[in-house]
């Protein structure tokens, strides 16, 4: 019996060891490398690949869905073990994912999801957590009391839904904080300005504002400055260059930043884990970071 | 130049040619197209390198790596195709590439001053600041000469300088040549026009098929002798016009006027007639032809074909009525140089004769073969591209296209310009044959012998009107020239 | 020398293709796999379809810079007809192709009647069509086209992509039109010498406009197939496509000076562009460098074209 067991374990080792030692080749299609966000993402992915001594092939779709499709086809042609795709468009990527499914190559999506096809896992910033982060920061800055405004993104988009959800969950916990207005401004700076102008008219007292993105918050800041209203704490989302500058100037209190480097690292790590046989959840959130002065 | 050889793929273009030129001499180089005259000039000018042979300038051995070397050695060449930049002024063209000036900027005013001195010196009245595109071909030729002479020139070679000049302009050119000669410039003069050669040259050399045939002082040669040397055989009748009795009326033009160009022109053409239209460049000959063919609009007058007045004026409707034009410039207007012989011949024919959309290539080939045989077009076959053909054979291809639609009226604008004597005679024979079959031919020509030799009637144009008309027997060169030049 | 040139002109593009395949195969033998060939056919058949129309235009010494935008707009129109107006796919396709032809007609009309140089006319149409695309889609992709609508664009019959079959049939059709019809002869003649064609009593305008309409139609067809390939009409699709298309045609031996070349060469040219794109990815050259290499190939091709053919146009007389 012992002998048999030993034999089996040796056999297992023989079979299993090469399997574990076998190198994983991963393919990655990035929507564009003309944008610093995605270049950082790519660098994160590369650093992890180098650490694990695995092969990572990166293609740039140059913001062109046709190029993305061709790149996916070429990765399938190269018979990579895992495909990580940051789609140029949620619809346009679907036929390519189906081709990969047919070739039995697992696909993970990064940052932007796909509207169809079998995707192992979606890796993106955790907007709910980001919303919570913003809410907590705003509440603490206000000394846990005051009147606040929420500027909502385009209704129905996942970003607006998730950021709003996280924010509201936190604010509910603070009994002395009241949301006096919650209006949509479509992620747009100009709309943010106009909507907030109206809110300023209607509300004599406003202590804080949270907007689902930086464009809207920058519009709101402009409206407040024009109306001469001071002492309002503004919190935005995305950490775009204008917003980071506004934080430095002190006009914006904080903005929530995505972490593209972490996103890239996580994507490759999870892809490798799946290749090794680990089960993955449908969605893996990438933590966010608060940018303050 | 001694024993110059030049090989092109499949062609031995120059077979050991020797050639000499003395100071202050006008040496004419004659020969049929393809005889090697232009190639020889290109060797002299450094445009092509000889495969064998040597070149001596003023007793010293010379060899050029490119045209630049030849130019700095004092050789000026005026090629057959004018090479002026049409949007620049006369002065800019003359001094192109040697503007001087300071730094990047061109001192236009001093250029123009220099140019006007040069032009004055040459006895040419031209405004150096006028744009070249506004000049006549003759004037452009003079600019080319001035351009060549703006450098220090010992030897000036001219390739067919008079091919597009009117007689008045030719005269002016000749005065200039005599002047240059007197100053000691050696001149190489290439031309088809033997009468000119005899007028201007001191010595004549004849080339044929890349070989040197012979040379001699003008006094010792006659036109017949030179022609015989050129073609290598006796040319009996250059103008084989037979007597044809004119039939019914084919074409009548009544009171045709085109603003600024043509004034109240009337003419008629009957079956079997060849009507010669003579005029100097700019007299409106080609413009008249273009109006009749429906290419250019006109304000007054009517055109009657076969008794019916034309209503729509376009090349297509003229063709339908049986008029066809063979244009003046075969390379610019007549041919698809990069297409093959069969397409060039059949392109109009297919429009009319073959039903449906598809071309049957066998029929196209048959048509081409037919005309290649009929007109004796020398080519490797219907699939050869037209650009490889000699001038005479190219002209025959254009004629074949015209004949393929069997027109009643054929307008030939300069049918034999720039083609060799042999092909010329063949085209003249063909014209005669066509008219005997009943075709009416309107022939525009600036070559007097051709007009005199081929026409049944001659009409002379001057400044957009008819200045005279002659029956065949009445016409002679003096009367026609007087009517055309209006002395 | 001239003989060598003529042969280079004829088989040069084939040599370039074979050379390219050889070089790529050294770095990555998988390039030559049958499945990869089909892969390239799928990836570049849309460029190829546009290149068929472009061949007609370039043969007349014209150029059509609007193909990428017309592709985008026609595709978006087709998708819009199918999803918003609920037209059945054959009707939506026909409508979209008509739209492409209309834009071609505008280009051709500007060139023929407006005497606008083809480069400028089609540049204007390029901007118009792109703008129209953004207006129609409001900047968002249109998805939800029916399966039948998408089928030709992404499906394959066995290993062969349907788009590849369409490209090959179109090539054969174009070959027949160019070589065996009166219209085709006029296309070559127009590129060679428009004045001669006019003097021969032929309606030059009709031929000139027709080639742009053909180019518009092929761009529209490619646009519809692109919708199928991506299951959606993307507003920014086809930007810069004209470069690939023109490069394919010129690489295939059709002269930018007009009158010389043909659709057979264009197929080879498309395959060169396709294998270059696919091969550079397969041998994992950085995407930045890829663009430099492609640009160089394009410039090299144009210089080669001028060297091989331009001479005849500038120095037409070879006799005497």
Order of helix and strand elements from N to C terminus of chain C = HHHHHEHEEHHHHEHHH
- Placed side by side, the strands forming the largest sheet of chain A appear as 2-1-3-4-5-11
Approximately how much helix is present in the residues of chain A?
Answer: 40-55%
Q: How many distinct beta strands of chain A?
A: 12
Largest sheet of chain A, in brief, is: 6 strands, parallel
Tell me, briefly, the overall form of chain C.
globular
Detail the topology: elements first, then pairings:
The complex is a heterotrimer of chains A (293), B (487) and C (320).
Chain A: H1 2-21, E1 25-30, H2 36-51, E2 55-60, H3 65-77, E3 82-86, H4 94-102, E4 107-110, E5 121-125, H5 127-141, E6 146-152, H6 158-173, E7 177-184, H7 189-202, E8 208-211, H8 214-227, E9 233-237, H9 241-249, E10 254-257, H10 260-275, E11 283-286, E12 289-292
Parallel strand pairs in A: 1-2, 1-3, 3-4, 4-5, 5-11, 6-7, 6-8, 8-9, 9-10
Antiparallel strand pairs in A: 10-12
Chain B: E1 2-8, E2 11-17, E3 26-30, H1 37-44, E4 52-57, E5 60-62, H2 67-72, E6 75-78, H3 90-94, H4 108-121, H5 137-149, E7 155-159, H6 167-182, E8 186-190, H7 194-200, E9 203-208, E10 211-217, H8 223-231, E11 249-258, E12 262-270, E13 274-279, H9 285-292, E14 300-305, E15 308-309, H10 315-320, E16 323-326, H11 330-334, H12 341-346, H13 349-353, H14 361-374, H15 391-404, E17 409-413, H16 421-436, E18 440-445, H17 448-454, E19 457-462, E20 465-471, H18 477-485
Parallel strand pairs in B: 3-8, 3-9, 6-7, 7-8, 13-18, 13-19, 16-17, 17-18
Antiparallel strand pairs in B: 1-2, 1-4, 4-5, 9-10, 11-12, 11-14, 14-15, 19-20
Chain C: H1 2-27, H2 34-59, H3 67-83, H4 89-112, H5 118-137, E1 142-143, H6 147-154, E2 156-157, E3 160-161, H7 162-180, H8 182-192, H9 194-199, H10 204-230, E4 232-233, H11 241-251, H12 263-282, H13 287-314
Antiparallel strand pairs in C: 1-4, 2-3
Helix pairs in contact in C: 1-12, 2-7, 2-8, 2-10, 2-11, 2-12, 3-4, 3-5, 3-10, 4-5, 4-10, 6-10, 7-8, 8-10, 11-12, 11-13
